[in-house]
Every structure is written in C-alpha cells, then in structure tokens.
C-alpha cells in the first residue's frame, strides 16, 4: 500500500501543532507587552507644544515653585493650567522680543488661550482630586516624575489603574512630610518604614480596604 | 430486554465499518441534507441578525430590565449547558460502566454535548453589556492590577464553561480518533479507485482522504496505541463525570448565592443535575432516532437500544418528579412566606405557562414508557425526548422569571416581557447547533465504529473470509535486493491468531537476540490479548492524568488564595479574605481540564504520535487494519535481526493458532 503522506508531512504537521501551542502562550504575552509599551502608553514621549516650554529651565534652574503656575493644586481637584497672564508677568519684561515667545504675546494680545497638548489624561469615570493627595503628603513627583529635569515635558507614568492601586494599597510607602511634597527629586528616606505608618496615621489615611473600594475613585 | 439483539446476526466487522463510513464518504440523501442545511443556515442567519442588533443596541433588546436582569439569555444558557452535561454524563457513565451497547448512541451523545456547549458558551459572552471585554472574566495579567473575584459563583461559571468545553472536545475527539483512521482508510481507498478510473473528482477525493488523515494524526491501530487510548478515553470520561456534577451543582449555588426566594432549597443542586441529565438524554434520544430513520441505520441502532434509552428516560423522569415533589412539599409545609409566595406565583402568576409546560412536557410524558410497546416505538422515544427538552427549557424560564419578576422595590414596577429578539437569539442558537450537527452527520461517523465492532466481536461476529482480492499481487519492485528493510509483516484474520504469533516470535527473539526486534500488533479494535503477548499491559496513563489534575487544581487554588487573600484585598459581602470553600469549585473544574490536557500530552508522547507517514503503512493491504484484519509487525532494530528465521517460525505455526494468511518483507 502507498503512503497517504510524504515523510516531510510529519515535520510540517508537528511544527504547526507546536506553533499553535506556542501562540496560545505567546500571543497573550506579546499582547500584554505591547499594551504596556511606551508606544501605547505614551510614557517618555514629549509631544510638540505651541511654545517649547521647559520645566527644567523654569522650575529646575530658575527655581519657580510649582504653585506659581499650578495655583489650585492644594485647593481643588485640578492643579490648574496657567493663563497667558501668568507667563506675561515675566515675559513682558524678559525675552519680550523673542521669536520663540511670539505665540504667547499673540495669545495675550488676542485673548485667545494657548492650546497646550494635554499629557496626563484620566478617563471621565475616574474622580481624581489633586488637593487631597497633595495635602495628605503625596508629592508631585510620585505621579509626574522629576518634572524639573524635563526639557520638554513628557508623561512620566502610564496612569493605568494598577499604578493608582499600587499606592492605594500601600500608601505608607509613598507618603511624605509636608515640606517634601514639592521636592521633585524625593526618594524614600531611610526611616520611611517607621515614618510612613506614622504619617499615614497622622493624616488619617485609611489604606488597604478603604482606599481599595471602587467608590473611592469611581463614583 | 431479552429477545431483541444489539447486533443483527451475520454482521461482519467490515460491514459495520462500511455501513457507518458510507454516510460521510458517499453521502446518500444529498438533497434532503441540503434542504435541512439550508433551513439551519437560515436560522443561523437569524442568529447573526439578532447578534448584530444586540451589539448595536444592548441587552435591553431582550426585554431584560432592572429587576429581571437574567431572562431568556440565562435560561437558554442553562438549558444548553444542561443538555450538554446530560449528554456527556450519559456517554461517560456508560463508558465507565462498560455498557457494551453504548456504541450506537455514545457518538451522538458526545456530539450533542459538544455542540450544546458551543451554543451555551456563546451566551455568557453575548449577555455581557460589552462582550468584547469577555476576557475580563479570566485571570490574565492586566494593567488594572485586578483579579476576577474568586469568591463569586459567577466567576466559577467562567472557569466551568472553559473547562467543560475542553473536556467535551477531548472526550469527543479521543473517542473519534480510531474512527477517523477508519474513515481515512476508506477515503484513501476511494481516492485510489478514482485515480485509477481517472475520475474528475479524484483531486477532491485525495484531499478528503488527507483531511481525515490529518485529523486521525497517523493512528495506525497499534496494540500499544489501543491500550493507552482505552485508558485515556475512560479517564477523560471519569474527569468529565466529575466536572458535570461540579458544573450543575455550581450553577445552582450561583442562584443560592443571592437573597431571592425560591432559589435556596437544598435539593436544588440535585434537581439541576437530574433535569440536566434528563434533558440531555431526551435530546440525544430524539437525535439518535432521527439519524437512524434518515440514514437507515436500523441494523446498528436496534429496537433494544431505543428500549434502553426509553428506560433511562423513565428512570430520570421519576427522579425529576421526585425532586419537584420534594421541593413543592418542603416549601408548602415549612418554607417561609416568601418561598410560598414564589411557589404560588409559579402555579398561578404571570408566567404560570412555564410551570404548566414543565408539568406537561417534562414530568408526565416519560411515564408512557411503563408500556413495553411505547419503549419499542421510535416515534415515542423521539417525541418524549423533544418534549423533555422543551419542558427543561420551561423549567429554567420558570425558575428565573418567577423569582426575579417579583421585585421588592417600588422602582422596579416594569414587568418583564419576552421580546422577539430574545426568542430570535435562542432560535438562532438552535440554528448554530443544527448547522454544526448537520456538518457532523455529513462528514463524520455518526455511530462509533470501534465500539460497535467490539460489541460485534463479543457477540461472535465474523471478521470476513479471505478472498482473492485480499491477496494483492506481490509488487516485484517493492523489495528489490538492496532496499533497506524495515521489518516483516504478517496478516491474520483474528486477534487470537495474532496474539499467538506475537507470543511465538517474542519467545523466539528473546531467546536469541534480545533487544534487536520491536514487535507490534495492528488491528481495528483494542487487542488486550496482543497487549499481554507483547508484555505491554503494565503501561498506564493514569499517573499522568492524576499528576496533571493535581498540578492544575493546586495551582489554581494557590492562585485563588494569592489573589483573594493577599494581592487583591477587596471586601465583598463581608466574606472573609481566605474563603477557602469558594476556591474549591473553580479549582476542581480547572483540575479536570488540566487532567485532560495531561492525558492528551501523554497520549501523544507515549504513543509517538502524530506520525502521518510511517513504514507500517507500507504493509500491503494495511488499509484493512482499520477494517477486519490484524497485522503483526516485526521491526528490525539491529544486526541480529534474522529475517528467514522469523519467517520460518511464523510459517511453521499451526493453522488457526498463529499461522499468518500472508508474510511480507517491508521496505523502510
């Protein structure tokens, strides 16, 4: 009797089977990798802005406080984006003829705000409040990274739910003393293990189960 | 049951194979099949439209509202999975009990189980508000840093259905494997006939043979394969039975997890299981009768088979009646007022039609089988089977709607109304089932060839006489001097002769040159005597199954503990973080699935499969190894292989006690 298949068919058949099994394990892993990649999350990518504003220069080198521009960060849900007026407090005097700043002057003259491209976005069903985080001892850099080192501003962390929950599960690892909140190069001090729980108790932060409830962020 | 026989007198092994494989190979009744297929496709088109509208508009199109969150969708799901569980349980139980007559219905039962699971598996996905996020039900590495809530019975269901699908496919496919090989060989014979006749369809015929060949994965009926196959098949059946109990009782616990009245009677897990098996047997019985009538398989599905199905239906009908009566009496006598209210609304309320359908279709018709005449009537078996299936659907509707329809909040004043889209979705899922069933009937053997042959051999069927066509002319070019030798083959008419010859050659070669030969037997049925003669009976697949199940189950349990008790701290309903009993159910289901996967791997590795191309296929007339001939292969493995000596020994055996019909040298 003749063979129905050539000897090579075995190799192909087994290769297909093994490829199928490998895909079963491999495709989810690759997909998980892509979803977490900077390409998808936009972490570390600085988009073109109407004016090439440098946080490194203004905040890092010149030492302007965060709150000079983001005025409502301690009082309201949003940190606040400065109006053109704020820029012009200095730039009506400094670099007043610079070509680079022409869009700022135009905006000031016309009353039309500058159209910045937003970096940090949360879905509409997430209720985030800056003031409560800042006043309870969570510093800017925990979420926004070392902004004072950014020539052009980029997204430092992908604001996925896992990122938020990491801190909501263990706030004592991230909480700071009030004077450290604005420190953009903060890293946990050696005594964070004892200081953290102290600050958590002092600031009435109820970690674990309370901060893990859905309704804390999704109302 | 005496009198009627399961196998008609004069049936041969080859005849059984031809009767069954004729349906997929030559396919009689082409026109009727196409008409039925067109009808089923039309229903499937209804499904497509219903699904499109559902995705476009949302689950509101089914009429589901704030009180009745589960309606026809979950009733349909429960019904489909119930029928699947029932069919699987029947087939697996008969296999485990060694009921020799199961061959006529096990294939249909396993297929019904598989197709019902396919239809059922869609519902949990499409009834989600956003079906494209269905994978959120599964534990996968996600950026939310969330886990499925293993303390909820709803998640058990996601694990159950995935496990059930895997077990179902496995039982069906492993059982089908030798039959696929038989089909491959028949299709190959047909393809070669067409090639010689230079028929126009010869390319198609060869493609069909190759397709069956791929599906059969190089099964060549080796004694070693049969031994592990039998073990693997039975072990999958055992895992399947345990999974069925897990799935059905889990489904009832899902209801009991709520605070709604009418869902907490302690007999409910038993009722669910009984009704599931009942509907599964009903559906299987109806389809068996249909296939028997349409394809004229009266010889293989006899009146006695119908009688056995009827007895099963009668027994299950009584069990179902008992469950209902118990629930009724315990609620009426000592249920709380809300439970009694549900009972009253079931009988007289808005959806009372469901209750009366249950009574008329599910509980009463099976009682007709107290009569011997009814048990023998195919029409009665089919009719009662269909009625039972209808009644089981009404039961799911009743259990869901009557309880959910009475909400205790004034806001939920809108009553539930079945909508045309809810019904269309269910009708469409029936269409899906029918399309797949018709494709199965068209392309695969509807009756298990292997099981029927084993039964026939036990009943003393003949393996068919040696005819002139059995002796192909020796091909002069096949074994030219200098062609490398693979081994010697010998052909036999019975397993006993093969076993005797294997014994003789084994003792001969063991005495002379120990490990230089490799013996194997090939045949159309499992060959325990040959296995013993070859010294293979000690091999077992069960440790792999047990190891796989334990590994999978413990791994899943560990994941549940890690997720719920440690990583995903979350308060639901005041349940403790370490809710160990609720982790047992999904872990158990997953263990069954892991055991089955381990069996597949063990079958492939221990049997050295898949082997699409194998020197054994070079044996002249080997196509009949899947029909009615038994072959011994003596494979040369070293220098000490003495061809003439083995040939002399075989030829010298007494006729009827090991002398082969023919001895051949086989090239590599």
UniProtKB/TrEMBL annotation, chain A:
<keyword id="KW-0408">Iron</keyword>
<dbReference type="GO" id="GO:0046872">
    <property type="term" value="F:metal ion binding"/>
</dbReference>
<keyword id="KW-0812">Transmembrane</keyword>
<keyword id="KW-0349">Heme</keyword>
<keyword id="KW-1133">Transmembrane helix</keyword>
<keyword id="KW-0249">Electron transport</keyword>
<feature type="transmembrane region" description="Helical">
    <location>
        <begin position="12"/>
        <end position="35"/>
    </location>
</feature>
<feature type="domain" description="Tetrahaem cytochrome">
    <location>
        <begin position="132"/>
        <end position="218"/>
    </location>
</feature>
<keyword id="KW-0472">Membrane</keyword>
<dbReference type="Pfam" id="PF14537">
    <property type="entry name" value="Cytochrom_c3_2"/>
</dbReference>
<keyword id="KW-0479">Metal-binding</keyword>
<dbReference type="GO" id="GO:0030313">
    <property type="term" value="C:cell envelope"/>
</dbReference>
<keyword id="KW-0813">Transport</keyword>
<dbReference type="InterPro" id="IPR012286">
    <property type="entry name" value="Tetrahaem_cytochrome"/>
</dbReference>
<protein>
    <recommendedName>
        <fullName>Tetrahaem cytochrome domain-containing protein</fullName>
    </recommendedName>
</protein>
<dbReference type="InterPro" id="IPR036280">
    <property type="entry name" value="Multihaem_cyt_sf"/>
</dbReference>
TrEMBL record, chain B:
<feature type="transmembrane region" description="Helical">
    <location>
        <begin position="585"/>
        <end position="606"/>
    </location>
</feature>
<feature type="transmembrane region" description="Helical">
    <location>
        <begin position="236"/>
        <end position="260"/>
    </location>
</feature>
<feature type="transmembrane region" description="Helical">
    <location>
        <begin position="544"/>
        <end position="565"/>
    </location>
</feature>
<dbReference type="InterPro" id="IPR021776">
    <property type="entry name" value="ActD"/>
</dbReference>
<feature type="compositionally biased region" description="Basic and acidic residues">
    <location>
        <begin position="463"/>
        <end position="474"/>
    </location>
</feature>
<keyword id="KW-0812">Transmembrane</keyword>
<dbReference type="GO" id="GO:0005886">
    <property type="term" value="C:plasma membrane"/>
</dbReference>
<feature type="transmembrane region" description="Helical">
    <location>
        <begin position="379"/>
        <end position="401"/>
    </location>
</feature>
<keyword id="KW-1133">Transmembrane helix</keyword>
<protein>
    <recommendedName>
        <fullName>Polysulfide reductase</fullName>
    </recommendedName>
</protein>
<comment type="similarity">
    <text>Belongs to the NrfD family.</text>
</comment>
<feature type="transmembrane region" description="Helical">
    <location>
        <begin position="353"/>
        <end position="372"/>
    </location>
</feature>
<feature type="transmembrane region" description="Helical">
    <location>
        <begin position="421"/>
        <end position="444"/>
    </location>
</feature>
<dbReference type="Pfam" id="PF11821">
    <property type="entry name" value="ActD"/>
</dbReference>
<feature type="transmembrane region" description="Helical">
    <location>
        <begin position="111"/>
        <end position="133"/>
    </location>
</feature>
<feature type="transmembrane region" description="Helical">
    <location>
        <begin position="79"/>
        <end position="99"/>
    </location>
</feature>
<feature type="transmembrane region" description="Helical">
    <location>
        <begin position="312"/>
        <end position="333"/>
    </location>
</feature>
<feature type="transmembrane region" description="Helical">
    <location>
        <begin position="266"/>
        <end position="291"/>
    </location>
</feature>
<dbReference type="Pfam" id="PF03916">
    <property type="entry name" value="NrfD"/>
</dbReference>
<feature type="transmembrane region" description="Helical">
    <location>
        <begin position="153"/>
        <end position="176"/>
    </location>
</feature>
<feature type="transmembrane region" description="Helical">
    <location>
        <begin position="33"/>
        <end position="56"/>
    </location>
</feature>
<feature type="region of interest" description="Disordered">
    <location>
        <begin position="460"/>
        <end position="480"/>
    </location>
</feature>
């Amino acid at each position: 009797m003749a063979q129905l298949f050539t000897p090579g068919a075995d190799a192909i058949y087994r290769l297909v089977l093994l490829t199928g099994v490998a895909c079963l394990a491999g495709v989810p892993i690759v997909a998980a990798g892509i979803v977490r990649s900077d390409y998808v999350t936009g972490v570390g990518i600085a988009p073109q802005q109407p004016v090439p504003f440098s946080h490194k220069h203004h905040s890092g080198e010149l030492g302007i406080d965060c709150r000079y521009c983001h005025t409502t960060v301690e009082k309201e849900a949003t940190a606040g984006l400065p109006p053109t007026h704020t820029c012009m407090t200095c730039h009506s005097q400094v670099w007043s003829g610079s070509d680079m700043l022409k869009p700022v002057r135009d905006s000031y003259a016309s009353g039309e705000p500058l159209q910045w491209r937003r970096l940090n976005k949360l879905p509409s069903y997430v209720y985030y409040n800056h003031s409560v985080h800042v006043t309870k001892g969570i510093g800017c850099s925990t979420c926004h990274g070392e902004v004072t080192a950014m020539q052009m501003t980029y997204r430092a962390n992908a604001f996925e739910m896992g990122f938020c929950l990491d801190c909501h599960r263990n706030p004592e690892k991230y909480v700071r003393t009030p004077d450290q909140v604005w420190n953009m190069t903060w890293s946990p001090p050696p005594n964070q293990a004892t200081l953290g729980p102290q600050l958590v108790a002092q600031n009435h932060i109820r970690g674990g189960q309370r901060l893990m409830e859905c309704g804390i962020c999704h109302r | 049951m005496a009198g009627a026989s399961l196998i008609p007198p004069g049936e041969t092994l080859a005849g059984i194979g031809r009767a069954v494989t004729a349906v997929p190979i030559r396919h009689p009744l082409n026109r009727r099949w196409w008409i039925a297929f067109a009808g089923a496709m039309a229903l499937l088109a209804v499904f497509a439209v219903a699904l499109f509208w559902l995705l476009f508009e949302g689950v509101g199109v089914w009429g589901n509202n704030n009180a009745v969150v589960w309606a026809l969708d979950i009733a349909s799901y429960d019904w489909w999975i119930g029928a699947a569980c029932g069919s699987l349980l029947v087939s697996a139980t008969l296999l485990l009990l060694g009921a020799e007559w199961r061959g006529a219905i096990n294939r249909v039962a396993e297929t019904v189980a598989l197709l019902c699971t396919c239809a059922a598996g869609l519902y949990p996905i499409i009834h989600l508000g956003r079906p494209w996020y269905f994978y959120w039900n599964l534990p996968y590495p996600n950026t939310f840093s969330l886990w499925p809530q293993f303390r909820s019975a709803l998640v058990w269901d996601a694990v159950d259905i995935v496990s059930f699908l895997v077990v179902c496919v496995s039982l069906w496919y492993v059982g089908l494997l030798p039959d696929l090989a038989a089909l491959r060989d028949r299709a190959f014979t047909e393809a070669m006939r067409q090639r010689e006749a230079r028929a126009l369809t010869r390319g198609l015929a060869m493609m069909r043979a190759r397709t069956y060949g791929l599906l059969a994965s190089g099964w060549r009926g080796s004694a070693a394969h049969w031994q592990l196959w039998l073990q693997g098949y039975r072990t999958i059946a055992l895992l399947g039975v345990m999974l069925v109990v897990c799935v059905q009782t889990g489904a009832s616990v899902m209801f009991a997890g709520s605070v709604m009245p009418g869902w907490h009677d302690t007999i409910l897990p038993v009722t669910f299981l009984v009704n599931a098996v009942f509907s599964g047997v009903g559906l299987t019985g109806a389809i068996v009768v249909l296939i028997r009538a349409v394809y004229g398989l009266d010889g293989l599905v006899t009146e006695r088979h119908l009688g056995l199905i009827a007895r099963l239906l009668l027994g299950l009908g009584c069990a179902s009646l008992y469950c209902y009566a118990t629930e009724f009496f315990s609620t009426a006598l000592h249920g709380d007022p809300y439970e009694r209210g549900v009972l009253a609304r079931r009988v007289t309320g808005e959806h009372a039609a469901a209750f009366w359908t249950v009574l008329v279709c599910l509980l009463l018709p099976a009682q007709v089988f107290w009569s011997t005449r009814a048990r023998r009537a195919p029409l009665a078996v089919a009719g009662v089977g269909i009625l039972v299936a209808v009644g089981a659907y009404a039961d799911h509707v009743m259990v869901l709607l009557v309880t959910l329809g009475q909400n205790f909040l004034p806001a939920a004043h809108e009553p539930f109304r079945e909508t045309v889209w809810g019904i269309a979705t269910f009708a469409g899922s029936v269409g899906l089932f029918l399309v797949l069933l018709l494709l199965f009937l068209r392309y695969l053997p509807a009756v298990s060839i292997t099981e029927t042959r084993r039964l026939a051999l036990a009943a003393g069927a003949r393996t068919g006489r040696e005819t002139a066509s059995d002796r192909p002319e020796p091909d002069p070019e096949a074994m030219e001097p200098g062609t490398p030798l693979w081994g010697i083959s010998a052909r036999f008419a019975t397993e006993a002769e093969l076993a005797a010859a294997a014994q003789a050659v084994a003792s001969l070669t063991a005495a002379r040159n120990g490990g230089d030969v490799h013996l194997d037997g090939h045949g159309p049925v499992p060959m325990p005597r040959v296995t013993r003669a070859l010294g293979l009976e000690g091999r077992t697949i069960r440790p792999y199954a047990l190891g796989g199940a334990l590994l999978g189950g413990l791994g899943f349990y560990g994941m549940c503990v890690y997720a719920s008790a440690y990583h995903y701290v979350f308060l639901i309903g005041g349940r403790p973080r370490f809710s160990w009993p609720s982790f047992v159910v999904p872990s158990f289901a997953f263990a069954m699935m892991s055991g089955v996967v381990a069996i597949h791997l063990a079958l492939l590795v221990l049997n050295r499969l898949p082997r699409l191309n194998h020197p054994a296929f070079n044996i002249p007339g080997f196509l009949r190894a899947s029909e009615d001939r038994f072959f011994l292969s003596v494979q040369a493995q070293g220098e000490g292989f003495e061809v003439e000596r083995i040939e002399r020994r075989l030829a010298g055996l007494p006729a009827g006690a090991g002398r082969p019909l023919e001895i051949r040298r086989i090239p590599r």
